[in-house]
Amino acid sequence: MAEYLKHAEPAGAAGEEVRRVVSEMLLEIERRGEAAVREYSRRLDDWDPPSFRVTGEEVRAAEEAVPDDLREHIAFAQTQVRAFATRQRATLGDLELETLPGVVLGHRHVPVDAVGSYVPGGRYPMLASAFMTVVVPKVAGVRRVVACAPPRGGAGIHPAQLHAMAGSGADEIVCLGGVQALAALAYGLDDLEPVDMIVGAGNAYVAEAKRQLFGHVGIDLLAGPTEILVLADATADPTLVAADLLGQAEHGPGSPAVLVSTSRRLAEDAGEEVENLLATWPTAEVAGEAWRRRGEVVVASGRDEAIELANAYAFEHVEVHAAEAELDAYLDGLRNYGSLFLGPDATVVYGDKAVGTNHVLPTAGAARYSGGLWVGKFLKTLTYQRLTAEGTGAVGPAAEAISRAESMAGHALTARMRLDRLA
After folding, report:
1. Which of 242, 263, 301, 416 has the smallest set of CB atoms within 10 Å of its CB?
2. CATH label, 16-94+112-219, candidates 1.10.10.60, 3.60.21.10, 3.40.50.1980, 3.40.390.10
3. Strands (E), 180-246
4. Which position among 109, 163, 251, 317 bears the catalytic label?
5. Do the two domains 16-94+112-219 and 225-371 of this chain adopt the same fold?
6. Three-state SS at 137
7. Is 109 marked active-site?
8. Active site residue 216
9. What is the layout of strands, in order, in the sheet containing 103-111?
10. How far apart are CA 271 and CA 119, in angstroms?
11. From the CA atom positions of the chain, what is the Rg in Å?
């Protein structure tokens, strides 16, 4: 029976006020277009440039402002993401087969035509989000990727962030933030064609805007506060466990951080280490509040119970700090997670920034039914059929009979007309 040494506070639901504000903004932007976008951008971000589009000259200036070593690290991470996405794409083949004499069925994987990539830049200028939401759709074959990020301090996109967006292969770059950015991507501006799909994370207003825009455009998923769950046995390093919990907690005060351990001693030691680390943690103000509000420590009776607890949480990130011989059992048993990190050397920051897997992942229990962003999200699997008269002879009688049973006489007639031509 699991024992809770620390309970999290209940998560706050997205407020009605957020839904109301977003709805009003989207309606206003849909009605008035760029004039409304400018008003919101000016009021919310103190940003009203002659054009929201980023020029090639601005991209080059940003590149020059980024230190050489950081440019190299960005290029390394982009290469890892591109390589993994390319191998994923190679697993998705087209299909064509003759299922009956004269009946050929098939499918093709066709990329979405235009994607809007929202790259967050509020609390932190997120470089890696550009790799995940620009590189990957380009690997999928998306013709046009429009990258979008908010201005910082009234001075446009953060230089390193802009360099990351451009270097990831964005075809167009727009400097806009928040709801007005997503609306501009979905509805278009005077000089910006609308996109077909919007991807990327953001704050509660961005998430709500994606929810309300879904249907007008496609979306990747609805992301809430980031989550981490660490599974640890008696062999785990309590300091490393504590550091990984706090590393994710720095995203925001609402970010859940949970430890499930098969060792009470490890659970207690890791809890103490969290407090010790917070004394000098560089983002202690945010991470400490997240830990106090949303941190949880659970002692499980054994590995199987720990796995089932993790599956019930269905968290975005799951780390396993366990003996090497146990890792395959965790891999086999865990089924509800956004991304899995096996062994003490596999940490969330690697997946978030540079290892090659995608960091746009399901939260708030969505891992029960969805995976994260990957190259396949940007592909439409389209079926087709090719029939001969022989195929009509095989399929037509069943199609006619089923249509008549459904009282769909017109459907039945279209089958009968073809069958009659066989006589």
Report:
1. 301
2. 3.40.50.1980
3. 197-199, 218-219, 228-232
4. 317
5. yes
6. helix
7. no
8. no
9. 95-100, 103-111, 379-387
10. 33
11. 25
Read off the pLDDT of residues 372-417 as tens digits, 9 standing for 90 and up: 999 999 999 999 999 999 999 999 999 999 999 999 999 999 999 9
| The residue to which tokens 């000259």 are assigned | 57
| The listed CATH number (3.40.50.1980, 3.90.1150.10, 3.20.20.70, 3.30.470.30) that belongs to domain 225-371 | 3.40.50.1980
Up-side HSE of residue 161: CA atoms within 13 Å toward CB? 25
DSSP 204: H
Burial (CB count <10 Å: 0-12, 13-18, 19+), residue 137 = buried
State how beta strands 114-118 and 257-261 pair.
unpaired
Strands 3-6 and 295-299: antiparallel
Helices (H), 46-171: 56-65, 68-90, 128-130, 136-140, 159-167
Structure tokens at 263: 């060792």
Other C-beta atoms closer than 10 Å to the C-beta of 151 total 20
Which is catalytic among the residues 34, 250, 296, 316?
Answer: 316
Per-residue pLDDT band at 270 (split at 50, 70, 90): very high
d(CA 342, CA 355): 13
Give the closest residue to 356 by CA, choosing from 169, 160, 138, 135. 135
